[in-house]
Amino acid sequence: xxxxxxxxxxxxxxxxxxxxxxxxxxxxxxxxxxxxxxxxxxxxxxxxxxxxxxxxxxxxxxxxxxxxxxxxxxxxxxxxxxxxxxxxxxxxxxxxxxxxxxxxxxxxxxxxxxxxxxxxxxxxxxxxxxxxxxxxxxxxxxxxxxxxxxxxxxxxxxxxxxxxxxxxxxxxxxxxxxxxxxxxxxxxxxxxxxxxxxxxxxxxxxxxxxxxxxxxxxxxxxxxxxxxxxxxxxxxxxxxxxxxxxxxxxxxxxxxxxxxxxxxxxxxxxxxxxxxxxxxxxxxxxxxxxxxxxxxxxxxxxxxxxxxxxxxxxxxxxxxxxxxxxxxxxxxxxxxxxxxxxxxxxxxxxxxxxxxxxxxxxxxxxxxxxxxxxxxxxxxxxxxxxxxxxxxxxxxxxxxxxxxxxxxxxxxxxxxxxxxxxxxxxxxxxxxxxxxxxxxxxxxxxxxxxxxxxxxxxxxxxxxxxxxxxxxxxxxxxxxxxxxxxxxxxxxxxxxxxxxxxxxxxxxxxxxxxxxxxxxxxxxxxxxxxxxxxxxxxxxxxxxxxxxxxxxxxxxxxxxxxxxxxxxxxxxxxxxxxxxxxxxxxxxxxxxxxxxxxxxxxxxxxxxxxxxxxxxxxxxxxx
Length: 623
What we know:
- The protein contains 17 helices and 16 strands.
- It is of the alpha+beta class.
- The protein has three domains: 3-164, PAS domain (Beta-Lactamase), CATH 3.30.450.20; 287-448, GAF domain (Beta-Lactamase); 462-616, Reverse transcriptase/Diguanylate cyclase domain (Alpha-Beta Plaits, 2-Layer Sandwich).
- The protein has a five-stranded antiparallel sheet.
- A hairpin with a 2-residue loop joins strand 8 (391-400) and strand 9.
- Helix 1 runs antiparallel to helix 5 (166-216).
- The protein is rod-shaped, with a radius of gyration of 60 Å.
- It starts with a helix and ends in a 12-residue tail after the last strand.
- The model is unreliable at 262-270 (pLDDT under 50).
């Protein structure tokens, strides 16, 4: 119900209620005065009757009583007058009750109470009926007990009379009607005045409601009309100032958000602009907080793990993949795969791991949505992996330095499409915030790898070994295992550079690195120690296994033919073997022992392996 209707109902109801209450109070007061006057009038008349009758009885003229009463009836307005004897009087004087007028209820009431009583009998001609008791008394001028067989205070009878009050009643009604009309007129004037007084407030409130509705939709251009110079006018002025402030600040933001949303295909809901603005701001704040969190993460692995948790917990998605584009820009590496029962399975054809251009999102650098076309990307194989349900997918490219550095793939059922679509713009915001962090950490990882690896062979260098050494030795000591140390050196390598050039020498070194890497386990470590020297660390290896690996390297090297511009080239390698902590509990001393054994192999003819023995070590001798 509107305020205008409420105020009208309140004014009408209030006026009528007040008029009714005032009328009832007036009628009650008027009737009290009117009845009080009638009682006084009746009391005087009845008392005169009683005194007259008493006097006549004292004079012994009891026969004059009845004619006197009959004559009283002729008095204007007096319609009834009578003296009704009590039952004890009737009994004493043996009165003929058949000639007596029966006592009325009012008169019986007087007999019972010994007090005067009155009543107004309504009808066409209203009548006031009044009665007083005739009390036996021995005091005063008249001694009732001298004639009556009664006790002091007994009721001997009742003096009763009735007065026609038709004219008085009509006059009272006319007065009441006049008062009611005057008050209704006054109420109407008050209602009109209140209506005029409240009209600016009602109009302002109605207008304010419309303006608030506009503001909820992001339109703050509405203004209130100032209709008075009182508090209502002050409210209008302050509200207009507040709306002007909102229009200059938040309104500008809303318009920009509206322009942003209108350009996005992801915003298809019909929520009002203000709600959209609040949601966009919340999403931005959440994305910024997310970026601040990932910026403090130690490495890419933690960043990807945090991104995965956000997708699962905040966006409610359980099936998705995150691919990273390799530095060569031609391969995709799966970083995270969620929602598949078996490890190693992908939501895409494995061809994307070999040729990343098979991925439509990577190739076009645009969002790929299968909702618009079920087979929009032929690389998607989700319905082949889980053929019990029809799946859709959305692939979002992660832009790094203007090119695609990764792809986030969302997989969902058809009935989840609207929910996923509604969250897509927010997810894009998160990806836009995390992409620079991923790019920075990938660059840092590349720089770190470059400083830890030999750029020509791709093997770790001595700097990496020095940083990794404490972890490796602590593991070996804790597990009480030994580490096989192989120092390898290409025989007569200097001749290659001198006679065939450094390009051929570099090819030989790269090939040696490949031979060593293939001869050891993935848990082992191959380091380019310097020049043509390579160090292989065999984790959890005893003497026999270490010698076997060294021999395998030697034989492979001996059998391999290097391709050079002048034809095939054969080269050999010498290997020295030591064992940590068998030969020494100092790691670098064991490395020195393997180096000593390697030089001993060279001195004894090259193309051989030698296990270090203590007689090879001569204090002060340099190898």
